[in-house]
Amino acid sequence: MTIEYLGLGWRLRLRQSRTSYYITIVKEIFLGNVLHGKLYLYYYLVKYLNRNALLLFLDGEPREQQMLSDGHTDLTISDVS
What we know:
Blueprint: E1 15-17, E2 20-22, H1 27-32, E3 42-48, E4 51-57, E5 65-67, E6 73-75
Antiparallel strand pairs: 1-2, 3-4, 5-6
């Protein structure tokens, strides 16, 4: 998997609401990607440079997964070039 860093980053505080934890998407990301309140966003737990990370897709579509021989799934992600 190749990830291209686009030069933007934010620091977010994890928030709790009763039994759920959540993060907030900043307004610039929401408006810049033409998101709306009824859109589902898909995110995946990934390992990148030996660090746990969340990979969030802003296009509202899930990614295809391939089952590996050990029972885990592998995300099929096209390179961003």
